[in-house]
Amino acid sequence: MRTDSLFAAALGLTLAAIFSCACAARSDRLDPKAPIGTKVPTDEGFYAQESRDGRTFVMGKSATFASFKNGCDMQLTKSFIAAGPSGETVVVEVDPLLPEMTERLTAEFSKKSNVRLE
Length: 118
Hints:
By secondary structure, the protein is α+β, with helices and mostly antiparallel strands. The chain has one domain (about 1-35, about 40-115). The chain has helices at about 1-25, 60-70, 100-115; strands spanning about 50, 55-60, 75-80, 90-95. A four-stranded mixed sheet has the order 1-2-4-3. The longest helix is centred in the N-terminal third of the chain and has 25 residues, at about 1-25. The chain is globular, with a radius of gyration of 17 Å.
């Protein structure tokens, strides 16, 4: 019985860690008081670029950047295979509620790196 309790506790901690990463990236998207589906502008103009595992990641929300720095993966992305300045894959954050963010991020990356993402 003691083994079952330890296993249950370990499983609970593992699931909590997984969901905290997934939720952190999404927590800034919606205002809990706003009607469902309402766009809430967040981090307008935020831009972060990080390299990991031979790829370049471009983020448009501070919550996503914080989660990424803590080792979590980005939830929704668009990948540009071998499109980076050194031939690396460029991974750009996507948010269906903020489609203009992805356009802004790709344009800003293209300008900074002198590479056109298509």
